[in-house]
Structure formats: structure tokens, C-alpha cells
Specification:
The protein folds into seven domains: 3-207, Jelly Rolls (Sandwich); 229-403, Jelly Rolls, CATH 2.60.120.200; 423-589, Immunoglobulin-like; 598-767, Sandwich (Immunoglobulin-like); 804-809 and 817-871, no CATH class; 912-945, no CATH class; 949-1074, Sandwich (Immunoglobulin-like), CATH 2.60.40. Helix content is 3%, strand content 46%. The strands form 16 sheets. Strands 36, 38, 39, 41, 42, 43, 44, 46 and 47 form a nine-stranded mixed β-sheet that branches. Strands 1, 4, 5, 8, 13, 14, 15 and 18 form an eight-stranded antiparallel β-sheet that branches. A hairpin with a 3-residue loop joins β26 (290-296) and β27. The protein is elongated and about 160 Å long. The termini are far apart.
Length: 1077
């Protein structure tokens, strides 16, 4: 039984005709009868449905009783819409007061006793097209709604309402001339109002035709045959064995080596949308990384089992043959135990369920690509002859042609399960008592009208439970069921036999209920079935209790309700089954206004980390949004029933071995320490109590101490600290329940919480930290080294030749300028081959990028670096440049500075430059022949020096200096060149060689060479003495002179000409050695 079955009185699938009996699949035994020539036919949309001829055909259904609320759903496809055409009519209308019919292209609903009697909806229908219709009526809300194809199209109001009397009814006919002509499928009648989402889910279930059902409990002629009625069969390879099983009775076992099943391709197995479900019991972790469970080669609806215990849902879509839903969490499959796995794909979203619970979901990237390949079970799903085969047991493979909702998957599980335990055999019945929101809630209200509780009684044993009819009114000694409430639980209006329109009653066909009986401080209702019934294993009886409301005394609270049963038996036995079960009901206030002007949400983000260790904090706020003033509160100090705010979370019980609630915020252990900090401001005006939920998690209860109201626009901030989570990423819920707020009904807010590796705090995001200190803050408990499948940050791409990149932008020139870091697995994006590279660059010029190759070569402006560092363009450096020997590694060697390329044809020189006062100076120039020039750009010998030289020893800054001067003189001119300065007590040696040449006559004029000593005694002026007779060679007139001059303490070389001469050029070579330097 699932939530979609709650309140279900009738479900005619309209797919079969068993000797004119139309079977009710709700489990309530309300079978219909086909009249005229109405019969099931094949249909491409629904699979099968009933055809009506428009003159004599209809289906008769039995009385279903009275109810205040009803939802009727069915599929219709009219051949013509030319006049009144009946869809459903009570047989003795207007006593049975419901009539639904087409009036030309509009739908009309007549409710006798309602005002207006006729409600005609504005939606225009057309012939020869399928529609899913849902009509929902609520006497309490005084309205009726029409849903078409799962969407609400119109709601119409009543001025006066009446209860619905579902006497025997006809589907498709009423009077001559009004019979329906066309097709009708899958009729459901509920004694409650369904939501739009529930209607849409049921619509999806109807469309999801069962394509294949292999029970896998036996092999016939070495093949597993389809139990859904087709001729499809899966033939065995090897000898899979049928084994006894305590869970299913029998199942098929595979050895993981030689055994598998293969079904030839068929049109029914070529699915663009699907649901595939199967039970599997693996023999421990597989020896290989993967084992195939079920699917078609080419990755059509593949279910793979990983050795880490997770499910791999794969399919072919969007040009990627190996896409799929995200993997389920590791350990989601239990070894050596039965697991139910279901995968769905509607072309947009792919989903995986484990044991009926959502375990993984994600976008598909496109509609599935269908392959004409065989269906494989327990084999290598890629079609290999061996390997990747499943070892263990399989049971109940089902394939549907659409994506089923979770409710339908859970229903399929319930049908399959037939576990046998002594407890279930001795206490076969379990029950729930739920309201329309699927909660165990009994409302406080002053008017019983329209209130419903759904009594769901399920057979949990492994065999049918039977009862014989009781035709008299049920009593304390003659009944089948007894529903027992504590005295003071139910309100007086629903217990007063003098007010039958408000008295608690059962709205269920063939069931009677007694008037309330006071007995041992309880109030008891006895129920009996007026006809014999069989409750199959896993099936449910659906009874609707109307008009049950709680007494206002005591306010919001909890109470106990018991269901006792007797005069039941197992099939084939005479021993009576007697026993009882117990449930807890929450009593909540439904007096007052239903909508409270409060807002509940989070301040600063709603994310928590799910790394199982980090503690997160959420700041919950409650704000008064009333337009006209404060909201009253009932304080603890003065009220018997004070206002309470209850904060709780969904949690996964720590004691469970398997993960049943992955949607919960955390485990019981994760949430047991959640609290409001002791210094929180809210504690000054509110009493805070911590209670446990199921003995594990925490519920926080806040009660105002003396506060009598929440002021206009007042906000109460509630910090929730020490929240941890170890459950899979995804949404979770925080529940804020408010009770006993004067003038308002009890209610709750559901505040979404996101658990995952990311936490948002204002404008900052944290990964692995709940307190991010930057726009993106990544923190690891243990650092992660790089690897092919690991790292602190992993950016991936699937296309060969593709690239992954990080882009940096600013508001300025955003459309053109940006920086980036890019990894690509080919030399050019979109290329082929294995030539990966990492690129750092800007958008301005592709030649300016920095490239790192796998070999370790770095290129600056060089797309294909040919060495460890390859710079294409000018280099600018600040700091020292250290060159280490090429051989290196602690051994002697040689370091190279080379001017070269790899062409083998060009000649390259090398130049070292310096800068003085902003001016570039060519310091050293090596030409391609190896000649070196110092201070000159044109090396003409192995060593060319432009300027002075200094040969020093013992670290002295000045040694044997050589200086070369040249210049030009005219008539009567002289030139002086500074050589050096003599300090106190200093001596020096000087050699001077001078050549003078007349350029006009191209004539030699003077060659002289002289040696001197120059010295200073103490602090006296320098003295210069010639060491030997100078060498002097003159030409023409002796008007040219050269020598040494002393100016202060400076020693200078001097050349001059005194007579007629023009354009004389000279060179002076001076060498000197200073005794003190």
C-alpha cells in the first residue's frame, strides 16, 4: 500500500473481461459488470482499454456509499462529441446524485442537492484524442475542480453543497441517446481530494504500460517466460538454478562465470522512456570492478553493480554512448541480502531508486538512443562473451515503457515481498490512520463536516487473510474490527447519535460501523463487513472514516489509538485470528484562521556540510508579516496550553544497516547534539527544551516565557548549532511546527536545507568548511595529492581533443579581454593525438601564452617549446640568474648559455647589454665565429676591448690598467686625458705611447714612447720622473708634443701641436700601475 492508494474505493483498469466481470484492482472487491457489447481492445496509448459503441454499451459498478469528498479519474477518447454523452452516472439518479457527461465539447457535472446543480466547465474537448480527466469535489470547501491531462484547468464554487451518494453507477451510459461512443480506460474513484501532483503521478502510472515481467522463479524449457502475457522469453546460457528462498519462495541463481539469460530484440524492448526494476542478492563484493545486472548492449537501460557497492545507471543519449544518472553512494547495495533496484528515464531526467528510495538523479542530456540489441541478464552488458557476469540471485525483473513515480515503484515492491516471520503470521494485520496529507493527525475543530481519516489495513503475512460476512449491526461480541480511542480524544459533536449528519461514520462499500460505545475509559467503534472478503498478502483494505475530530480540551497533544481484529482466518484454516495493533495520533488545532501571517526561513544561507565531521550552523528566523498588528502568543507563565514552536529534522536511524532515508538531513547520531547556543538572544524570552526523536535525533521546543505577542514586523532569530551530516548530497527538510497560537490553526513550515560539500555564507562559498573566509574557500582535513582520478579540485572533459579551462574576467572590456588557465589533451583544441598541454594566457594575443608540456618544457610565447624553458620574444628579469651545470646533481659539469636554434642553417650571435642612467650599453658581444667584443658591437678578433682594461690580483680593485684614447687636433690646440689620481704616500708607474697623424697630407707626424714614475712624499704634490731616454720619431716639422702633466693630484696625458697643421688625429695608449690602491 502506498500514499496513492489512500482513500481509493475503486480502480477498474478496464483492460480485461473475465466472463463479463470487470475486476476492481483496489483490493476492495468492487468488481464491475460489462453490459451490451462493451469489451477490452488493444490501444497504442494505454495498452488496453474498453470500447463503447454509443448505443448499448456500459459497465455497471456496485454502490460505494456516501462521502463528503470525492475524486474521479479516468481516461476518455470520444469518437464523436455531437450531443450529450454520458461518462459516469449513478444508476438511480437523482437518489444517487452524481452525473458526469459531455454536452457537445464541454464537460458537465451534476450534483443533486448542490447549488448550482449543474457545473459546466469551459474547457473545449475534441474528438479522436485521449484525455486524462480528474474531477475533484469537496463539500467542506464548497468547490469542484477539473483537471485535464494532469493540470488544473478550472475550479467552480457552490453556494450550497451536499454529500455525494455513490449508489450503483454506470460507466459510459445512462439513457437512450446519451451513451458514450469511444474508449474509456483506467477508472479510479477516491474518497478524498487528490492534489495536482498526485493526479499527474497516477496519469504517469497509467501510461507506463508493463512491457515485461520475468518472475525469475523457474525456467521452462531452459527459458524464463513473461508473466505479463507476451510471448517474450529469455533463454539461459549455462544452467542457472532455481533455489528456494525465504524472501520470495524461489529465485534464480547465477554462478558469475558461465550462466546468464538472453532475450532476442523485440519492438517492445526499444524504449525511448523506461522504468526497469529488479531484485538482486549479490554474493559479496564482486571479484571484478563491474558486474552486469540487466540491459542491452549499446548502453540501453543498463544496470551495473560496482565492487564498491553502488549502482551504475547507463544509457546512450546526446551523442554520448555512455551517459547516465549519477552513481548511487558507495555501500548503497548490501552484500548477501536482497536489494530492490529501479531505474527510470523520461528523456529529461534519469533516476535510480534503491529499495524504493531515491538514491541518485540527474539530467539525461537528451532522449535515449534505441539500439536493436538483445536483452541480457546477469551477463556482460556490453555483449562480451565472458567476464563482468553477475554472481548471486535475481528475482522479478519488470520493464515499463515510461518513467514511473516513486509511489508506483514502492507499490511494485510491496507486491513482490512475501517474507515469512512468526510475528507476521501471528499478527498479520498492520494499520495506519492518516489524514489527507498522509500524516497521523487528528484535527481540533468545531465542525466535523468534511474531515476524513483514512484507515488502511494491510496484510503483512505471506498468505491471504479471509473473513466471513456479518449481516447484522456490529456489536462488542460480533464484529471484525474495533477502533478504540482514549476517552476525551474525540469531540462531542462527532459522538452525538442525535446528530447523524455529524456522527463518525465509515465511507466504504460493504462495511458497517456501530455508534460510539464507551468502554473502560475508551470510546470504541465496531466495524463489520457485510460480505465475505479476502485480503491477499501485501494488499490493503481502504476504509474512510468521516467526521472524526478531536476535543479542544487539552490543546495540541498526542494520543493512542488501537485497532483490534477478530473472526478472521488464514485461507484453508478454521482457527480464528485475533489481535491488535497500536498507533500514535497527533492532535492539532484546526480552530481559527487557517493561514497564519508568519514567515519562516533562513538568514545567511541554508546549506550544511555532509562530510560527517564539520559542524554547520543555520540561523532560522520567524517573522510577523501581518499587515495590521501583532500576532498573539500564549506564554508559559499564564497559559495552560502555551504556544510552542517545534523544530525537527528528518533523520536516518543510526541503528539501521542499510540507507533507507538518503533524503534526511543526517543520521540520528549526526543530529543528536543540535542545540541553540547558550548565549543566543532568543533564550532570554523563550524557554528551550531538547527532546529526542526515536531516541536518537533532536527536537527543539521553544515556548514563550512571558511574551504575549509577536510584534508587527518583529523577527525571532533562532541559531541552530552543531549540525552534522554524513548522508548523500541533496535537499532535506527542517520542520517548524507551531501550536496553540491564539486565533490560528496549528500548522507547520517546511524549510528546505541543502546538504552537500558546499556551504554558502552570505556572498562566500565554502567547500569543506562551514565558515568560508573568501568568495571561494576550499578546505581539506587531509590534503589530496594529484592523480589521474583525484585532486583537491578536479575539472574534467569527456571529448577527445577537448579542453578544460578557468577564465578570469573583469567588468572592463568583458566581451573581449580575459585571462585563463586551460588544459587540453591535444596540441590544438579539437585535434587528435596525445599531446597534452597546460596553457596560461590572456585573450589579447595567442603568442603571449605560457605553455607547460607533459615533458616539463615551458614555453613563453612559444606554442611548441623545445627545451625546459623556451621564450619567444624579449626577456625581462629582475634579480639574479643562476645557471647550473647541465650534468648537475652534485657532480662537476658545465653550464651553458647558448645562442642557437634547431634549423641547422642559421648563424646566431650573443650580446650582453647594461644600462647607465637610462642608456643602453653594449657590454659584451659574441659573434657567430666566437669572437668577443667588450664595449664594442663589432668583435674583429678573439677579444676586442673598447675602452680601458684592468688586470688585478688579490682582490684589489685597481691593478695594471690599460687605457686607449683617440681624438683630433687643429693648429695650436692641445688635448688632455685623465689617467689617475695619486693619494698621499702613493707611488705609481706609467708607460705612455702616442701616435699623431696628419689626415690632410696623410703624413706621420709623431711616434713617442716614454716611461715615468709618479709619486707623492707624504702629503706633498706629485712628482714625475722619466725613467729612461724616451723614444721619439717625428715627421716634417717638430711642432707636435706629448707628455705627462700634473694637475693637483691628478696625473694626465697631454698631446699638442704648435705650428701649422690641420686635421691631426692621435691615439694615446697608457698603461699604469699604482702602488697603493
Amino acid at each position: 500500500m502506498t500514499a496513492l492508494d489512500r482513500g481509493l474505493a475503486l480502480h477498474l483498469t478496464l483492460t480485461q473481461d473475465d466472463r463479463r466481470t470487470v475486476v476492481d484492482s483496489s483490493g476492495n472487491g468492487n468488481n464491475g459488470t460489462a453490459r451490451g457489447r462493451a469489451q477490452p481492445v488493444d490501444d497504442p496509448t494505454l495498452g488496453r482499454c474498453y470500447q463503447f459503441n454509443g448505443t448499448t454499451d456500459y459497465v455497471e459498478i456496485p454502490p460505494l456509499g456516501r462521502t463528503d469528498t470525492v475524486t474521479i479519474q479516468l481516461w476518455v477518447r470520444a469518437d464523436v462529441l455531437d450531443r450529450t454523452r454520458t461518462v459516469l452516472a449513478c444508476a438511480d439518479w437523482p437518489t444517487g446524485n452524481l452525473l458526469i457527461e459531455f454536452v457537445n465539447t464541454r464537460l458537465k457535472v451534476n450534483l443533486t442537492g448542490g447549488e448550482p446543480g449543474d457545473q459546466i466547465f469551459g474547457y473545449a474537448f475534441t474528438a479522436n484524442r485521449w484525455y486524462h480527466l480528474a474531477v475533484s469535489y469537496s463539500r467542506r470547501d464548497q468547490r469542484i475542480s477539473l483537471y485535464v491531462d494532469g493540470k488544473l484547468t478550472e475550479t467552480r464554487q457552490y453556494g450550497k453543497t451536499a454529500e455525494v451518494n455513490l449508489t450503483g453507477a454506470w460507466v459510459g451510459g445512462r439513457n437512450a441517446g446519451t451513451y458514450f461512443q469511444g474508449r474509456i480506460g483506467s477508472l479510479r474513484i477516491y474518497r478524498r481530494a487528490l492534489t495536482e501532483d498526485q493526479i499527474r503521478q497516477i496519469m504517469q502510472i497509467d501510461l507506463a504500460k508493463l512491457v515485461l515481467h520475468l518472475p525469475l522463479d523457474e525456467l521452462r524449457d531452459n527459458a524464463a517466460v513473461d508473466a505479463a502475457g507476451s510471448t517474450l522469453a529469455a533463454r539461459a546460457t549455462g544452467t542457472p538454478s532455481t533455489v528456494l528462498d525465504e524472501f520470495f519462495g524461489r529465485s534464480l541463481r547465477f554462478d558469475g562465470t558461465n550462466e546468464m539469460l538472453t532475450m532476442p530484440d523485440a519492438e517492445a524492448l526499444r524504449l525511448g522512456a523506461y522504468t526497469v526494476s529488479i531484485w538482486l542478492k549479490p554474493d559479496g563484493p564482486p571479484p571484478t570492478l563491474w558486474q552486469g545486472i540487466v540491459g542491452k548492449p549499446g548502453r540501453n537501460f543498463n544496470i551495473w553493480l560496482n565492487s564498491a557497492g553502488h549502482i551504475h545507471h547507463r544509457f546512450n543519449a546526446g551523442g554520448n554512448w555512455n551517459t547516465g544518472a549519477p552513481d548511487t553512494p558507495p555501500g548503497s547495495i548490501a552484500w548477501n541480502a536482497w536489494n530492490h533496484v529501479a531505474i527510470t528515464n523520461d528523456g529529461t531526467t534519469a533516476t535510480t531508486y534503491i529499495n524504493g528510495v531515491l538514491a541518485a538523479t540527474g539530467p539525461t542530456g537528451g532522449a535515449p538512443v534505441v539500439n536493436n540489441a538483445p536483452l541480457l541478464l546477469a551477463g556482460d552488458l556490453d555483449g562480451a562473451a565472458s567476464g563482468h557476469r553477475f554472481k548471486g540471485n535475481l528475482a522479478h525483473l519488470r520493464i515499463f515503457r515510461a518513467a514511473l513515480p516513486a509511489e508506483a515503484i514502492q507499490r511494485g515492491m510491496a507486491v513482490d515481498q512475501a517474507a515469512v516471520t512468526s510475528v507476521r503470521r501471528s499478527h498479520p494485520l498492520v494499520f495506519d490512520l492518516l489524514d489527507g496529507d498522509d500524516e497521523t493527525v487528528l484535527p481540533i475543530d468545531s465542525d466535523p463536516t468534511g474531515h476524513q481519516l483514512f484507515l488502511e489495513i494491510t496484510n503483512s503475512a505471506d498468505q491471504p487473510v479471509l473473513l466471513d460476512p456479518i449481516t447484522t449491526a456490529p456489536t462488542a461480541t460480533n464484529h471484525h474490527l474495533a477502533l478504540r480511542f482514549r476517552a476525551g480524544t474525540l469531540a462531542a459533536p462527532c459522538l452525538d447519535p442525535a446528530k447523524p449528519q455529524q456522527l463518525v461514520r465509515v465511507a466504504a462499500d460493504g462495511w458497517q460501523i456501530s455508534k460510539p460505545v464507551s468502554e473502560d475509559q475508551t470510546v470504541v467503534f465496531y466495524l463489520a463487513s457485510t460480505r465475505g472478503r479476502t485480503l491477499e498478502q501485501g494488499r490493503t483494505w481502504h476504509l474512510t472514516l468521516e467526521h472524526a475530530i478531536a476535543d479542544v480540551a487539552g490543546g495540541t497533544r498526542a494520543t493512542r489509538v488501537e485497532l483490534h481484529y477478530r473472526q478472521l482466518r488464514y485461507a484453508g484454516q478454521t482457527t480464528a485470528l485475533e489481535g491488535h495493533r497500536r498507533r500514535i495520533l497527533k492532535i492539532i488545532n484546526r480552530l481559527g484562521k487557517p493561514e497564519i501571517p508568519l514567515h519562516a526561513g533562513f538568514t545567511g544561507g541554508n546549506s550544511v556540510l555532509n562530510d560527517s565531521r564539520s559542524e554547520s550552523m543555520l540561523v532560522l528566523h520567524v517573522a510577523n508579516l501581518a499587515a495590521d498588528g501583532p500576532i498573539p502568543l500564549a506564554p508559559r507563565d499564564t497559559s495552560q496550553n502555551p504556544t510552542r514552536l517545534r523544530i525537527s529534522f528528518d533523520h536516518e536511524p543510526t541503528t539501521r544497516a542499510t540507507l533507507d532515508r538518503p533524503w534526511a538531513l543526517g543520521t540520528g547520531s549526526d543530529l543528536k547534539d543540535v542545540d541553540i547556543p547558550a548565549n543566543a538572544a532568543v533564550r532570554t524570552g523563550w524557554q528551550v527544551e531538547r527532546t529526542s526523536v526515536e531516541g536518537e535525533a533532536t527536537e527543539l521546543v521553544l515556548t514563550p516565557i512571558g511574551k504575549t505577542s509577536l510584534g508587527l514586523r518583529e523577527i525571532v532569530e533562532i541559531p541552530l548549532a552543531r549540525i552534522r551530516s554524513s548522508l548523500p548530497s541533496g535537499p532535506a527538510n527542517l520542520y517548524l511546527r507551531y501550536e496553540n497560537v491564539p486565533g490560528y490553526q496549528d500548522g507547520q513550515f517546511i524549510c528546505p536545507v541543502v546538504k552537500g560539500p558546499l556551504v554558502a555564507n552570505g556572498s562566500y562559498v565554502g567547500v569543506g568548511t562551514s565558515s568560508p573566509a573568501a568568495p571561494l574557500h576550499v578546505q581539506e582535513a587531509t590534503g589530496t595529492g594529484h592523480g589521474p582520478n583525484s585532486g583537491s579540485l578536479l575539472i574534467d572533459h569527456d571529448n577527445g581533443g577537448g579542453a578544460s579551462s578557468i577564465v578570469f574576467r573583469s567588468r572592463v572590456n568583458r566581451g573581449s579581454d580575459y585571462g585563463f588557465i586551460q588544459y587540453q589533451d591535444a596540441a590544438a583544441t579539437g585535434g587528435a593525438g596525445e599531446s597534452a598541454r597546460l596553457i596560461v594566457g590572456t585573450s589579447n594575443d595567442p603568442d603571449d601564452h605560457v605553455i607547460l608540456q607533459p615533458a616539463g618544457n615551458v614555453g613563453v610565447g612559444a606554442p611548441n617549446p623545445k627545451a625546459k624553458l623556451h621564450v619567444d620574444g624579449d626577456y625581462y628579469g629582475r634579480g639574479h640568474l643562476h645557471l647550473y651545470a647541465y650534468e648537475g646533481d652534485g657532480r662537476d659539469g658545465t653550464a651553458f648559455v647558448q645562442a642557437r636554434d634547431d634549423s641547422g642553417r642559421t648563424s646566431l650571435g650573443l650580446r650582453l647589454r647594461t644600462q647607465t642612467q637610462g642608456r643602453i650599453v653594449d657590454a659584451i658581444h659574441l659573434n657567430p665565429d666566437g669572437n668577443v667584443a667588450l664595449g664594442h658591437a663589432d668583435p674583429r678578433s678573439r677579444l676586442t676591448v673598447h675602452g680601458s682594461t684592468n688586470i688585478s690580483a688579490d682582490g684589489a680593485p685597481v691593478g695594471l690598467m690599460t687605457m686607449l684614447f683617440n681624438g683630433r687636433m687643429n693648429d695650436g690646440e692641445s688635448r688632455t686625458h685623465q689617467l689617475y689620481n695619486l693619494t698621499n704616500h702613493c707611488t705609481s708607474w706609467l708607460e705612455l705611447t702616442v701616435l699623431i697623424h696628419d689626415t690632410n697630407s696623410n703624413t706621420h707626424r709623431l711616434l713617442t714612447r716614454v716611461e715615468y714614475v709618479a709619486y707623492r712624499e707624504w702629503t706633498e704634490a706629485p712628482k714625475v720622473e722619466m725613467l729612461a731616454q724616451p723614444y721619439r720619431k717625428t715627421g716634417a716639422r717638430s711642432i707636435y708634443n706629448a707628455g705627462v702633466a700634473v694637475v693637483g693630484n691628478d696625473i694626465q696625458a697631454q698631446v699638442s701641436q704648435s705650428g701649422f697643421a690641420t686635421n691631426s688625429v692621435y691615439k694615446v695608449l697608457a698603461r699604469y700601475l699604482i702602488g697603493k690602491s
